[in-house]
Design goal:
Largest sheet: 8 strands, parallel, barrel
Radius of gyration: 26 Å
Oligomer: single chain
Distance between the termini: 46 Å
Strand content: 15-25%
Length: 583
């Protein structure tokens, strides 16, 4: 048995080395091509180079997987039997500041497309401008909210001028990667699930259609995706864009595709989002969809000859502040595991092998071993030390300095889009008895940590805690640290402002005369500034609820062990995110 294991490991290593060599070869796009990818309406199928074609695809978002792991994840998807992958392009990920575009490192879309092609996978590109995807504001940049009256995802000129500019940057970048240009992209999605949006603006879809055709040409297959119901397709479908549907496992597959036939009487059947799992929210149990149910529905889809994209095949992580939220306000965690066939860490699960077995019934699977789980290492217990609080460091953390305002300003009004912002005031009255501090119009977006003279008073939270009691003397310093927990990514609520978006009251008094600080916490951490702080307090046990503070811990990566550093997991025993919903 040991000899067999050793042989398998050796074969796997050789295969992986060969793949690495192939993937390191420069990607060349030739100037001419006879390749075609088309819709055959007469025979209800796609045609690739004239031959009948069906794709079996899986979703992976390059923005949720570190570039270092792109090869690993794509190879595992290929070895599962997929012949295509699907990915979103998050507009706000590439244009965080208006007019400044970033396509480098983890944002290098072109390298991801090259890599997909080198692995042998075609690409279904979801170009937006809106994507949903449990991503902050559905992929739309928060700076669009500088115009408070802008109607997002509509033909509002205030919105379209930015869409046009962004697409004039994105679409020319992807055009060389279209299939007819010897690239991997076979289809491009326009917008996303527009039939679920309140606007139902056909002029908007027509504008996007013309825009995409102008930049990409007439040969590429453009499509839309909507829920598997006539009501969704009524506002989501448009002549000139091939209408597809999305639905999960456990239902009536034939009936779901009948909804697509409402918009497309002929052409290939396509489920653009076949859900292998489901999303999570803070405070909810992790979503679980059994592998048997997924495998059964997948089998039924493939038996019909339909095309399918499994959403997600590799969920990954919404790093930093990129997670979204749903309405009524339920933020999503950074984990986007999605109960997918490849785990958040990129490891094959039992669901992966069940899906691979089903695919093997309909096409020949690639020969060779499947790449194993990535190596993990337990670095042990890390003792953390408490540094100064955010309030104590505010003058060093603020990149704008203090801004004076009669009434609170939102994040966008302060030219800040993510993270935390500090609002400072003084108590106008004596609060020797517990006095209500309230957000009567539910204007805390999304979570506020309240302190008086540095003493923690409580938490105000969107939709759930709109009043707390505070104590202190007139003139005492009132600090309110507001956390943006992710913008709503779906539905009417995507126009989601952050910060104190309405006034606060103390007893019956509207608080005025604010001093506001934008906080550049990420830069402070990145620069190593916090490591140089002198005031340290060793923690021997988890602290009780305290003022928001920085904590520092260190660990040693051992030497002499191959392939270190390795991935690991963080666990905070005894810690919780206290509040109405978060335990």
């Amino acid at each position: 048995m040991r000899a067999q294991v050793g042989l398998l490991a050796a074969v796997s290593l050789c295969l992986y080395s060969a793949v690495q060599e192939v993937l390191s070869t420069p990607y060349l796009l030739q100037s001419t091509s006879s390749r075609t990818f088309q819709i055959d309406y007469d025979n209800d199928c796609f045609r690739k180079d004239g031959e009948r074609f069906r794709y079996i695809s899986g979703s992976i978002h390059y923005s949720r997987v570190p570039r270092y792991y792109w090869k690993d994840r794509l190879m595992k998807m290929y070895m599962a039997g997929l012949n295509a992958i699907q990915t979103y392009v998050p507009w706000n990920y590439h244009e965080t500041i208006p007019g400044k575009y970033d396509f480098t490192e983890d944002r290098d879309l072109e390298s991801f497309l090259k890599l997909s092609s080198d692995v042998g996978l075609l690409v279904i590109l979801r170009a937006g401008p809106y994507m949903c995807g449990e991503w902050d504001m559905g992929g739309l940049p928060a700076w669009l909210l500088r115009n408070d009256s802008v109607v997002l995802r509509s033909s509002d000129p205030a919105y379209l001028k930015f869409v046009d500019k962004w697409m004039s940057v994105l679409l020319p970048r992807i055009k060389p990667f279209l299939y007819q240009n010897n690239g991997p992209i076979i289809t491009v999605q326009v917008e996303n699930e527009y039939g679920s949006y309140f606007a139902c603006d056909y002029n908007y879809l027509r504008h996007l259609l013309k825009l995409f055709r102008y930049h990409l040409g007439d040969e590429v297959v453009l499509f839309t995706t909507d829920g598997a119901g006539k009501g969704y397709l009524k506002c989501g479908a448009l002549q000139g864009l091939y209408a597809t549907v999305d639905f999960g496992s456990g239902g009536n597959v034939t009936q779901s595709f009948q909804a697509q036939r409402y918009a497309e009487p002929h052409g290939p059947m396509v489920n653009s989002e076949f859900y292998t799992g489901w999303l999570d929210h803070w405070g909810w149990k992790h979503s679980v969809v059994k592998k048997e149910i997924v495998a059964k529905s997948l089998d039924e889809i493939l038996a019909l000859g339909a095309n399918v994209n499994m959403y997600m095949f590799e969920g990954g992580t919404s790093f930093g502040y990129w997670n979204g939220a749903n309405s009524p306000y339920w933020p999503q965690p950074t984990s986007y595991d999605y109960e997918a066939p490849l785990s958040e860490a990129g490891d094959p699960t039992d669901k992966y092998f069940s899906i691979r077995e089903v695919i093997g019934k309909y096409k020949m699977l690639p020969v060779g071993p499947i790449l194993p789980a990535t190596p993990k290492f337990a670095y042990g217990l890390i003792q953390v030390k408490k540094l100064q609080s955010v309030v104590e460091l505010v003058h060093l953390l603020s990149f704008s300095g203090p801004v004076k305002s009669v009434y609170p300003l939102t994040f966008v009004e302060m030219n800040q889009y993510f993270g935390y912002m500090l609002y400072r005031n003084t108590l106008p009255i004596n609060c020797t008895e517990a006095t209500p501090l309230a957000s009567p119009q539910n204007g805390v977006h999304d979570r506020a940590y309240v302190m008086v003279d540095g003493v923690f008073q409580g938490i105000l939270e969107r939709n759930t805690i709109i009043t707390i009691n505070v104590t202190g003397q007139a003139g005492s310093q009132l600090d309110i640290l507001v956390e943006n927990m992710g913008r709503i990514n779906y539905g009417r609520g995507i126009h989601d402002s952050k910060g104190l978006v309405t006034n606060l009251t103390l007893a019956s008094n509207i608080l005025t005369g604010w001093t506001i600080y934008s906080l550049n916490i990420d830069e402070a951490v990145k620069s190593g500034y916090l490591n140089k702080l002198k005031k340290l307090e060793r923690l021997t046990a988890p602290a009780e609820v305290n003022v928001p503070s920085f904590y520092l811990g260190t660990f040693v990566i051992p030497s002499g062990i191959p392939d270190l550093p390795q991935d690991t997991y963080l666990k905070f025993p005894g810690w919780s995110k206290v509040g109405a919903r978060f335990e």
